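Appendix B: a complete holo record

For completeness, this appendix reproduces one full record from the ligand-bound portion of the collection. The bound molecule is pyridoxal-5'-phosphate. The inputs are the chain sequence and the ligand SMILES; the output is the full three-dimensional arrangement of the complex, encoded as structure tokens. No fields have been trimmed.
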Amino acid sequence: MASPILGYLDPEFLAVMDNTMALLRHLFQTENELSITLPGTGMSAMEAAVCNVVQPGDEVVVGIHGFFGQRLAEIVERHGGTAVRVEVGFGQVIRADQIEVALDAHPDAKMVAVVHGETSAGIRQPLKDIGKLVREREKLFLVDTVCSLGGAHIPVDEYLIDICYSGGQKCIGGPAGISCITLNDRAMAVIDSRSRPVDTWYLDLTLIRKYWLSDRGYHHTAPGSLIYALHEALRLVQEEGLQERFARHQKCGDLLKAGLTQLGLELFGDPENRLPMLTCVMIPDGVDDAAVRGRLLQDYGIEIVGGFGPLKGKAWRIGLMGYSCSERNVHYLIAALREIL
Ligand SMILES: Cc1ncc(COP(=O)(O)O)c(C=O)c1O
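The structure of the chain with pyridoxal-5'-phosphate bound, as generated:
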């Protein structure tokens, strides 16, 4: 980020952009030409993914198993669409047959959207069967991977995902303030055939595509320092190797869960589908949530966060993402928690 800033059309900067696209294709495990960054945090990519597809009156089936699925549904509605909510409890996953029932009842739905790593509940949503179903029904499949991309195997093309996005700051290990998105030709064909322009100018992917892929014309000033930083983070991902990186997240996630269980704590959610990079654990009765988190931060320099929605005040959420995902950090946290509890 400390590298000198170049103009947004400087040939050297354009080369960084091209290389960033190649690194993103590697990480998303896709051939999609349009694999780019967007200015703004993960929410910017979520908004772009939804608003480019949805026109007033469109139906979108949204799988909800936590806070971020609810947000996806709200964004669909803010852009004039109807969210067909397929809702399961926090800590559960959405089954393909539940999506099927919704598609049977709403055969004109344009898209199915789910969150892969539900950060609010620590749950990993299986994608393969839903991807197959959505392709058979000739809809678009949108997946949020803000929590999980860079820490778990998410092969976009193999899972038949049409639109996938993430943020810079989680398992990719880059900065906040930049996000990334990939869209295949099916998704872009739907966007290109809209009957009216995308209802936000800033996130209109038909305009942004020109800057990244074709005439390189000005759309917005590229956030150069953030792109450098994401580019470097993506180089580190590639250098480590995708499978090695996923294995590190899985190993540390398993170690953390084992350590918490040994402390007598109860893990939250479907045991078959817990995320490695975000562990949700119940706060034992009689333990003061804020006091424990305060001591962890002040005495040990460790930050863990509280629960969302129904888990507010009831659970802790512990992240092991990117650089912070190390066995050393797990042992240190478990030792600190043992001491405090
Ligand atoms: C699953 C998921 N989606 C979307 C977001 C939004 O990303 P951001 O906070 O970077 O805007 C988050 C943030 O935690 C998330 O966990």
